[in-house]
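#data-curation
PF: Archiving a pair of folding outputs for the training set. Convention for this channel: one message per protein, sequence first, structure tokens after, nothing in between. First:
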Amino acid sequence: MACADCFRGGTAIGTPQGTVETHHSYPTYVATPPSTSTTPTKASTVILFTDAFGLKLVNNKLLADTYAAETGCRVLVPDIIPGGPMSTDVLPLMDTMMSPVSLWDLKGQVWRAWCAVRAIGFALPFLWYATPNFKGCLERCLKFARAVKKDIADEGKGGKLGVAGFCWGGYQATNLCAYPAVEGTEERLVDAHFCAHPSLVKTPDDFVNAVVRFKTPVCIAHAGNDMALSNQQMDETEAALRQKTGSGDGEGGYHWQIRRYEGCGHGFAVRARPESEVEGKGAEEARGQAVEWFKRWL
């Protein structure tokens, strides 16, 4: 991935309410609005492209449940990462690796080195098969999204397609916005986009293309302390968007939003650490940012 924080973070507590079904050849977690929800149910669908941990990390399922309950949309979380998602066993290993150890603490140094060897054993296969900007990653996500878009159209209920992406999935969600629903047409694939701390996006080009190509509403939650996507990169992205599209409030038919979460690191919107009040607050606000965006456009 792009930084050590891609494989770090907290594990949420909760019981997923959705089901795992097969959608277009992929095991897919399906979250639907609960009967107790006060939000009107919609015919639209959101595809949530996860971080490196995929369906192995309960956080991703719980977030899908929340999106479904608060937007009224069905949420699909495909197990789509080539070679499979990263094992959650790497989370404590990375924490040990990144924790400071005194030079004179021989036992601590040996333990940290052993954790590093084990973490590398997990990371290398993942990076070999599934680095987010590898062509094969986007190709399979594009095929899946187009199939879901067709399903929505076939239902004939006026539903739309939203995409949400985090870390690994942030790259996929953002770049999908520049593709048509059907190759060779001018019908946009994505009707609303949200991403948080995307990995390995090319700035400002990927974001500009996401907005400009089909005038897709694009929403970005940026971590102020992101090791993979600096504040300077996002400042340059915002400047490029303003130059090409205006304010993002509808001028010229373009809608986009960038919000920076100061004090939050890469991964905060899905893997906030329970002990971090700043990240916890940021995760809740980013959830609200995504929900309001999808409610507006889907």
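PF: Second:
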Amino acid sequence: MNRFLLFLFGIAGPLVAAAQTSVPFGLVSRPDLVKVVHGTETLPNPWAGGLNSPQFSAIDLNGDQQQDLYLFDRVANRSLTFLNVASPNGGRMYRYAPEYEALFPSTLLNWALLRDYDCDGRPDLFTLAGGDIAVYRNVAGSGGRPDFQLVKDHLSYFNNPTSQGNIYPGGYNMPALHDVDGDGRLDIVTFDFNNSSVVQYYRNSSPESCGGLQFELVTQQWGGFASCATSCTSFSFNNVNCRPAGTAHTGGHNITLLDLDGDGDQDALIGRDYCPELVSLRNDGNKSEALMSSAGLNASFPSGTTPVRIANFPTAYHLDVNFDGRPDLVVTPSVFDNQDTINTTQSVMFYENTSASAVPNFAYRQNDFLQRGMIDTGESAAPTFADIDGDGLVDMLVGSTNRNNAKGFFRASLTYYRNVGSATQPAFQLMTKDYLNLSTQRYAGIRPQLADLNQDGRPDLALMVIPMRVNGTAAPTSQLRVLLNTAPAGQPAVFNPATAQVIQNLPNYIDDAPCFADIDGDGRLDLLLGTNINDQAATSLRYYRNNGAATLSQAFVLANADFGQIRNSKNVPAPDNRAYNLNPAVADFDGDGQPDLLVTDSEGRIQLFPNFRAQQGAFTPLPETFYNELLGRYQPVWLGQGRINQLILAVADLNGDQRPELFIGLESGGMVAYGVRGIVVTDAPMAPTLLTAVQLYPNPARGTATLEAPDPVRVAVFDVTGRLLYRSATAARTHHLDLHDRAAGVYVVQAETAAGQRTTRRLVMQ
């Protein structure tokens, strides 16, 4: 049986389509793609991606009057969305719903909190903008979904002409957004950016009873206390400055406001950088004037249960997460990276509020809230797939690092999931978190690749490993080590780390990202390597051809140091246009029988280059790759951004449908899963369509170009980053494109019929 795409999104050459369906190609999120079992427990959200430093907010995402969850992970700068749904076992549960993540801005950094400032019942979005606070108003969207519109790129205060300025918490501090004085308007309390020791109180002074964003600075030292550098639990009170104690503590402070004693005013929970405690301060004043004292300090909060102890920078979030209507407490680390001694598989502490009165009682329940229900291997998850046990089903290995040992050092290992399902209904069972006992090798990072490198029909194991320094930190180097499978065909794989071959002639730079694929079509697996090494300008992706040498360590020879000429999106000259953290994967995603190249980078971009063998020089990406079925449109996927952020790609056909499934390993230790839409099965020969006759001329062009089609089409023009530059308002057989204001370079012109058939052409502007 032949398999065909409705549309083949190649850039060069005529395109064809099957008449049986009008569903175009796209990658779609599949959070329930494969069942995953840990012990006897089936994970409810296996492909949610893991959590490291999440911030929690409540919001109704789908208009069903249920409070769902919005999370923003500070390490990856990633939004996550969970729906409040009925549990199969009764009650309620949270189900990962990534289709709602596209409703949130992709530019969020450091922190993001949802608070309703305009009293319309829809929480608005507050986030960092530089060191300022930006506000997105949540307006009524389609289907009851949120729609965030920027209303303030910064917040300011005004007392008088000589006392005014921006409200500036800075990058480390996360403010408390709360009605402090009880007037129904949202106020702001934040640690002072200049010295991070005292708390500033900005009262909402808007003339409206609700809905304004005007503020006045009421006091530079709310509550009369200061956080001192003497120790993690040291404070001064009565507006007294801290005593000098050597080097001042310059890290961040986060503050959460809630009424701990039921007296109607706001008490405080404070966590600080480099400290494990969450300190509570009781407010012995009132709504108008807070007053904290040493008598109200509790460094073992909450009392009567397991106190909060997180290795670094605990921050509390006060919201109901167990569906009983009482706000609980969730505490997480507020770190920016994974350089601390934190076990990031257990970094979300849940304290249930067991009190029905105005005085909460927080009882410790678990340290892996939500994490227990997902694959979370710690940090830097790197998946790969092959039949490891010889039963004919595709299994999974995941490379990752964690710090769950006694000394808190990096420990890289392989987690092995065996496929215990069937050829059409896969199911992964966790077998071991330390396959091959590699944690004893003192690696700071492992990226595995399962591939038949010696062409004997059995999967071999390649490991890009990062060595560890004596002090437990990662060295700035790497090695690509190959472990040949010595087991007979059809038997469980046998890999011996002691006999590994080291691939020569590589940059051997930290976080190099390998991908084995047949690039030149000669039947041998070549090597694509994403690298950040700066020995050559902008050479982020390198192609090493397999020359067939008998010794595998010498078989890969550099053939192209700038494969695809892939750059970042900043439109700046070299060397500042380099794409960092480039991670490649090769598969026939669009079903046209030709391999495609998929890459990720530190900006969070995921680009698909169709039929890359037919492209030369700078590859042209597909303008639209990921399809959001909830919104009914193509939508870029944002899984995080930042120089430390790694998105590791892996491809496998797990359900035997001859279509690739895509898995992306995240910095937060888990994975997300995608399937392919737009492929149809037919025994009939594929008929040509009107799209094969689309003409675009002249090409190359100077200023103008003409597109002609046999039937009316709409036209869109994209740049090579996928940014939409022009879309025609009406359909026509002939379109004259005026591109005088466009710079010289490569553009993508897309034509679409009324039936939804699409084709693309590459246009070179001189």
